[in-house]
Write a structure and sequence with these properties.
The protein has helices at 19-32, 37-44, 48-55, 63-73. By secondary structure, it is mainly α. It starts with 18 loop residues before the first helix and ends in a 19-residue tail after the last helix. The mean pLDDT is 88.
Length: 92
């Protein structure tokens, strides 16, 4: 029997403001679905290395690949009104 997928934890923030936390969110969702990296990459139509780089927070990943992964995993982005942000929120 193959190696089992170990579930990752969700980011410790409600706001995803940087590639590192977006990668953590994607990895947490994938592992919660007990999906291996190769299977997820195939499902989303991206390469294994691309998915791995995005999960590791690489800021140079393409938006197209990132959105393919988000769509494949059923992750939706939402827009918050500016008044919902606190002064401590940083934009990267």
């Amino acid at each position: 029997m193959g190696k089992q997928v170990t579930q990752s934890t969700m980011p410790e923030t409600d706001l995803i403001l940087d590639p590192v936390n977006l990668g953590k969110l994607i990895k947490a969702k994938r592992t919660a679905m007990k999906m291996k990296l190769a299977d997820c990459a195939a499902l989303c139509g991206v390469g294994i290395n691309t998915l791995s780089r995005i999960e590791n927070g690489n800021p140079n990943s393409t938006l197209g690949a990132t959105f393919s992964i988000l769509k494949g995993l059923g992750i939706r982005l939402s827009h918050l009104e500016p008044s919902k942000y606190t002064p401590d929120d940083e934009w990267v």
